[in-house]
Amino acid sequence: MAVSTVLEAGPQAASCEFERPKPFNLFIFGATGDLTKRKILPSLYQLNTLSLLPEDFLIVGSGRQKINTEQFRQQMREAVRNAASTSGEGVSGFNEGKWEELAGRLHYMTLEGPGSYSGMLAQCAPLEERYKTCRNRIFYLAVPPSAFGDVIKNLGEAGAATEVFPDDAGEKKGYSHIVVEKPFGRDLESARKLNGILRGYFKEEQIYRMDHFLAKETVQNILMFRFSNSIFEPVWNNHYIDHVQITAAETLGIEHRGGYYEESGVLRDMFQNHMLHLLTLTAMEPPSVFSTGRVRGERTKVLRSIKPLDPNGMDEFLALGQYGKGRMDGDVPAYRNEPDVSPKSTTATYAALKLEVENWRWRGVPFYLRSGKRLASRRGEISIHFKPVPHTIFREYTGDKIEPNTLTLCIQPDEKLDLFLQAKQPGSRICLGPVRLDYIYLKGIATADYARILLDCMQGDQMLFASAEEVEASWELLTPVIKKTESIGLKDFFPNYEAGSNGPALADALLAKDGRAWDPL
Ligand code: BG6
């Protein structure tokens, strides 16, 4: 039995708090949609309750629905109250006064076609004047991915990308940032096309490609942890590390997103973005400085070093699954019986993928990635499995096998680091046993990931957003495999794991072939 020692983070320094951003006008396209209600508005509400919004700001929601500002405010009030009742996006409790402060800044405009974009910008001018937004504008695309291209073009044609140039003091007077949600394209070709459309109007410094995983506290801590402690870097390579496991397991099913998920599947939904980002942060080289360009550059180099995946030999590196019915907190239906899902669907809701980073540091160290819906527990973590000691002097007492060390960076539900070591068990006999050192990174409510991303976009910090090169490199890796999986008949093969289980047996077999096993879920 492991002895557990808990170390906690020291008090937070005042300088670790966020700075309030400059005044802004946030345009939300798709303002009556699910993403706005579940993520964006609750995050803005959280920022307001934490006094992290500037004194002057404006939020303009727009969409096709013909509602007025009062009706929009009512819808958003309900959305924030719902988030508060589930602690969604870090919202704890609903405070009428705080809501009213935010609600007074919310406006709604109906968009009826390409021509209406310039009208909307013109109508906003007096509001921007009234709310003193200093002509800083953020255009947030919370619309379905199929609409990204049109909204970008319409904005570009309406002159929305224009920034107001530096004054004599050398400060930019008004920025225009555009936030594009994931999924960014559905394959390499469409991602390139979308990048092309964006670049037709906006400069790279204006473009914010979302990946909310990058904004999770422990994910950001990976680089701090690796590059500000001298004891880890010397062993962070193929001399000492046997393999790495990256897990994003969910208990939730696809909720009400059947239509989207049928088109996407787990490889597009979780691997092209979140899972590969976790891998790049674990594997990247230290940049010479912690700047957006250098960090993004190093992340991209990792993606470009991953051994290409041969679609004709997928059994070697890929295991797919789709959940059938099962028991979790009560009976849950099979994926094929979820709303808006075809009863013969071949969409994968689980994948396990083995990747190899071909460079000096990582040659020979497999990275095993797994993610799935309706699994036994919710868990996001990166687990570094070290090699065993080269020779054991304790054979007489412990036999040949000493459990190797593991270091686990836990992302969710708990934000912590776990280090498994071997140590003498107290007592007069020589007994070795595992000791777990837990470093609890965060207690209480963190700034939710969407809140952090919104703040960064207001501050003009692109570090936690993907560059054009990164999205294209990740699609380049996965597109041939995704296309191949879509061309083969998986109809009779699915479902192959029960809801509430650890995933398909095939995933276990993938590691067993290499003489390894997954960490328990
Ligand atoms: C989203 C995916 O990007 O990430 C969802 O579209 C997934 O399918 C979600 O459930 C997981 O994020 P989180 O922050 O809830 O773990």
Provide an overview of this structure.
With 521 residues, the chain is α/β, with parallel strands linked by helices. It has two domains: 19-210, NAD(P)-binding Rossmann-like Domain (Rossmann fold); 214-512, 2-Layer Sandwich (Dihydrodipicolinate Reductase, domain 2). It has 13 helices and 19 strands. The protein has helices at residues 34-49, 69-86, 96-103, 116-130, 148-157, 188-201, 217-227, 258-283, 292-305, 395-398, 449-459, 468-487, 505-512; strands at 3-8, 24-29, 57-63, 106-110, 137-141, 176-180, 207-209, 241-249, 318-321, 323-324, 326-328, 330-332, 350-356, 366-372, 379-386, 406-412, 416-424, 432-440, 497-498. It has a nine-stranded mixed β-sheet with strand order 1-18-17-16-15-8-14-13-9, with helices on both faces. α6 (188-201) links the parallel β6 (176-180) and β7 (207-209). Bound molecules: 6-O-phosphono-beta-D-glucopyranose. 6-O-phosphono-beta-D-glucopyranose is lined by residues 182, 212, 250, 269, 412.
Summarize the structure.
With 521 residues, the chain is of the alpha/beta class. It contains 13 helices and 19 strands.
Structural class: alpha/beta
Helix content: 25-40%
Overall tally of domains: 2
Going across the major beta sheet, what is the strand order?
1-18-17-16-15-8-14-13-9
- Second CATH tier, the architecture of the largest domain: 2-Layer Sandwich
Number of helices: 13
The quaternary state of the protein chains shown equals single chain
Instruction: State the CATH class of the largest domain.
Output: Alpha Beta
What small molecules are bound in this structure?
A: 6-O-phosphono-beta-D-glucopyranose
End-to-end separation in angstroms reads 18 Å
- CATH homologous superfamily title of the largest domain: Dihydrodipicolinate Reductase, domain 2
What number is the mean pLDDT? 91
Q: How many strands?
A: 19
| Beta-strand residue percentage | 15-25%
Radius of gyration: 24 Å
CATH topology of the largest domain: Dihydrodipicolinate Reductase, domain 2
